[in-house]
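Bumping my old thread because nobody answered last time. Still need a sequence for this structure:
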């Protein structure tokens, strides 16, 4: 009953630790979708989000997220189930490429954006949330925070952008053990093109959304909340938060991300620059 309920309420969450057989030789499935193993320390802001869920009260991997400050994680609002989230039921894994829930750090405060709509999920917009960690992290080669973009940044076409996570490598195909963090370069899709692509199925691409991806290159279920970063004049800036899509890696439906520049003032209301 509880599981069935969860399925209804969290259709986008990655669910429990993925279990899968090894891909057969010659058709190796590596992903996010179309990705490959990320080298340790390349994305030191990447975190995984774990929630105490279900009747067994087990820690389950649900989403990605990013460190934007020594004590703050940015993730997607739809990664946070329930009307009144309990911070003690959340944990964050930092500084590792292999998904695991040992040595995770505790969450002290959970804040979903007030305009996020629990029933509409990501498609309704404002799909952003902040988690305050119980203590600030010490930066290292493996743990660091990502830079937020300047308010007026519009990513120029052709900028190199990447999305990372432990989500599925194709629709309904979980990332196989050892659950190594995946990375894939994705092209930014101009707003107007993305709107036209989603119009036939009556999905509205709102101003606070940004599209990225191409045939066979995309984020997927379980990558939600994770960062879309672009290298802008030598600095990695987080421009998006994995939010929603239609299946994964389809040529005519790019991945949809919460646009970080739309939420900078909300973020800065809670998170004060650390440098
Ligand atoms: N909602 C999904 C999640 O919770 C993310 C889906 C992203 N889909 C995509 N095609 N880019 O993990």
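Sorry it took so long. Here it is:
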């Amino acid at each position: 009953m509880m599981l069935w309920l969860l399925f209804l309420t969290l259709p986008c969450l990655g669910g429990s630790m993925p279990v899968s057989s090894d891909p057969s030789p010659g058709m190796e499935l590596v992903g996010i979708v179309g990705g490959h193993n990320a080298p340790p320390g390349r994305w030191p802001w990447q975190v995984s989000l774990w929630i105490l869920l279900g009747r067994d009260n087990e820690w389950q991997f649900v989403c990605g997220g990013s460190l934007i400050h020594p004590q703050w994680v940015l993730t997607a609002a739809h990664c946070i189930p329930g009307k009144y989230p309990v911070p003690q039921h959340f944990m964050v894994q930092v500084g590792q490429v292999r998904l695991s829930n040992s040595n995770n750090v505790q969450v002290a405060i959970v804040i979903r954006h007030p305009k996020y709509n629990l029933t509409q999920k990501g498609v309704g917009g404002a799909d952003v949330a902040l988690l305050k960690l119980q203590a600030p992290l010490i930066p290292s080669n493996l743990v660091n925070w990502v830079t937020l973009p300047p308010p007026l940044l519009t990513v120029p076409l052709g900028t190199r952008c990447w999305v990372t996570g432990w989500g599925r490598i194709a629709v309904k195909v979980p990332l196989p053990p050892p659950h190594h963090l995946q990375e894939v370069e994705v092209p930014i899709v101009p707003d107007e093109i993305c709107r036209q692509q989603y119009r036939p199925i009556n999905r509205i691409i709102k101003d606070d959304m940004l599209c990225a991806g191409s045939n066979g290159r995309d984020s997927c279920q379980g990558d939600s909340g994770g960062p879309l970063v672009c290298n802008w004049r030598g600095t990695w800036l987080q421009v998006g938060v994995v939010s929603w899509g239609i299946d994964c890696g389809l040529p005519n439906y790019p991945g949809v991300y919460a646009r970080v520049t739309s939420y900078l003032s909300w973020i800065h209301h809670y998170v004060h620059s650390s440098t």
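The radius of gyration is 17 Å. Let me know if any region looks off to you.
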